[in-house]
């Protein structure tokens, strides 16, 4: 939930650009992989930056979000290029009163026809989170960090308890920033209704979720960059785990008692360790 003064459109575009650029820096967004969206519920003037208006049907009815604005990366666009030219790479969608359709505002210079093919998951998770928390701002990132995605191919990491006790043992920051741990969704087809349903459910109880053999989705009700941080914390944990596997698992990691002591000191509620 954000307090006034609310970020302006240009501020939001800049933060999406910085987050996208950093995701590429940490090798979580090769080629045109990954997508970013934010939902905000205060009025924004869209036409100056995005003068082309098209009517669109939403992938899901969201009646309670009538009047809300989404900023969404375009299909096939590179997250690392948003920072250079945000209006070519991002669309704004203003939800109509019926909650079934919207107006898509874009630039004359837009380099895409549609928003990301994962918009169904983005919209559904924004909707679910906003209905449950009442927040006026929500950001979602899908990225493809290599080490997390690689570990999701190894069967024993496909169980959440094993995954989390092994990944959250390498640095004190990990449990502090991801106290609910990392969620896990078995392989689902990209853009599918099954992946959307998995995201809604897992992101109710986690801030970041692994899509097996594909990537991750992270959320924040504070900023796009906070959502990107969550991708990075989870990926850094996976890098340590991968490193440990490579050297024959000689690292001991933080003990259960050490993790619990960190949680007491920093007032972290968790039930993983
Ligand atoms: Zn993907």
Q: SSE layout and pairings?
A:
Blueprint: H1 9-25, E1 35-40, E2 52-57, E3 69-73, H2 86-89, E4 90-95, E5 101-106, H3 119-133, E6 137-143, H4 146-151, H5 160-167, H6 172-177, E7 183-185, H7 193-205, E8 208-211, E9 215-220, H8 224-246, H9 256-265
Helix pairs in contact: 1-8, 3-7
The chain binds zinc ion (ZN).
Write up what this structure looks like.
With 273 residues, the protein is an alpha+beta fold. It contains 9 helices and 9 strands. The chain is globular and about 60 Å long. The model has no long low-confidence stretch (mean pLDDT 98). The structure holds zinc ion.
Bound molecules: zinc ion
Number of continuous helical runs: 9
Structural class by secondary-structure content: alpha+beta
Beta-strand segment tally: 9
Helix content: 25-40%
Give the CA-based shape. Answer: globular
Q: What integer value in Å does the Rg equal? A: 19 Å
Largest sheet: 9 strands, mixed
> How far apart are the first and last residues' alpha carbons, in Å?
29 Å
Secondary-structure element order, N to C: HEEEHEEHEHHHEHEEHH
The main sheet orders its strands as 2-5-4-3-1-6-9-8-7
Strand content: 15-25%
Short description:
With 273 residues, the protein is α+β, with helices and mostly antiparallel strands. The protein is 37% helix and 18% strand.
